[in-house]
Amino acid sequence: MKIAVINGSMAHYDHGLNRVLAVISETLVELGMELDEINLAYVQVPHFDGIRAQAMDDIVKRIRMSSGVVVACTAQLFAPSAILQTLLEFLECDDYRDALFEKHCLLTMVSKAGGERSALEYLARTICYLDGFESGRIGLQEAHTRNIQKTSGGVRDIIEKTAEDFYRAIRQNRKYIMPADIVHSTGANFAPGAAPVAPASAYTAPTAPHTPQWPVLPAAQAQPPAHLAPPQQQFQQPALPQQQFQQPRPARQPSPPSISLDNFTERQEQDIKELTALFSQKYTPAEETAAPMHPAPYAPAPQHVQQAQPVLRQPPFAANQFHIPPEGYQPSLPPEPQVRTLKQLTQNLPHYYQPQMAAGLTAVIQFLITGAESFEGYMTIVDNECEYTDGQAENPEITIISDSSTWSDVLKGKHTAQKAFMIGGLKVRGNFVLLTKFDSLFKL
């Protein structure tokens, strides 16, 4: 697919717009897009006088042949640059009216120190007026673009993700609902099937309805007749005796009896003594109260007398009470479940390899995983063989860049690799076709 990149800035006065376009171009090229740059600074765009111009034929032809358009310019006085406005004016002509019809447009605006938001809003409404789709906005100031090529993350990451969303909109052929408040130059409403709007000159304000004027009577005559006036009666509230408003006082509650702390302490000590005596009788060892096991010494028992059975030692505590383990006792802990790391799951991918889906395929897939479990490795596929190796490959056909949480969902089968790319959790560099085959090569 081809993308037309319209650069509407001057070479010596771009406020860093070319650096932003370089990041957008790198991202789109890595996704397999072909770029066609149209630099308006090197094209002699004539002034717009309401009709087509020969110098615009080639530009409009290149826009029509593209699948999407990147519209980029600088913001001057809260509006797009004059040279880009001239191009948009030409696209309103009947001969060029279909150039942006249902084309996805990525709008990029860079200002010196402010005004890019107002210029983006103006540009977005103009693109919608010309039947184009707004598929992303990038509004920056010159200070944001100075170190954009040297650092990763931050502003550069935002630009790359916006360019990837623009690429997905084109690949998915998304459709948008056009706003109905934009009116074409032909007088038809932007919404399909809407009735034409009448010009402002044909509108006449409706006349106000006639309001009857009623005569105003003097105040003396405005009073109602005597026979309609309500009778005036004087109502006087009877005076109540003062004693009816006096609330009775509640009866005084008797104070609680005082508690003697000395008696309470004596009673508590008595209870402790009784409990101590009870426990001492209950936990006396059985060997102290049992009968002797043998008769007295030097007195052999008769043969017909059965000797007493030995009394077993009773435990000092009941069986249902807690048993105190001996000193130094260490209970054995249950074995901890083995949790495989994300790197181990990636190393096990060859076990899920389906060689019948890779007939004649030779490829090297590089993995760059960031986040909580960051690592690097690559997979070598040659027909029926698949092997994983740690590190970086020299010339991989495809590089999969993902954070650890998204890559974990892919390996556990929650998301396919292609879906993770579509929702923005996974980035791809190189041959994008291999990403579509990844889900069929490995049965996860």
Keyword list:
444 residues; elongated; single chain; 6-stranded mixed sheet; Rossmann fold; 11 strands; 11 helices; Nonspecific Lipid-transfer Protein, Chain A; 5-stranded mixed sheet; alpha/beta
Helix and strand topology:
Layout: E1 2-8, H1 17-30, E2 34-39, H2 54-64, E3 68-76, E4 79-80, H3 82-90, E5 104-111, H4 116-129, E6 133-141, H5 155-171, H6 261-282, H7 286-289, H8 342-347, E7 362-370, E8 375-382, E9 385-390, E10 398-403, H9 404-411, H10 417-422, E11 426-430, H11 433-441
Parallel strand pairs: 1-2, 1-3, 3-5, 5-6, 7-10
Antiparallel strand pairs: 3-4, 7-8, 8-9, 10-11
Helix pairs in contact: 1-5
CATH topology of the domain at 2-171: Rossmann fold
Question: Which residues form runs of ≥5 with pLDDT under 50?
Answer: 185-214, 287-299
Q: What value does the average pLDDT take?
A: 75
Radius of gyration: 46 Å
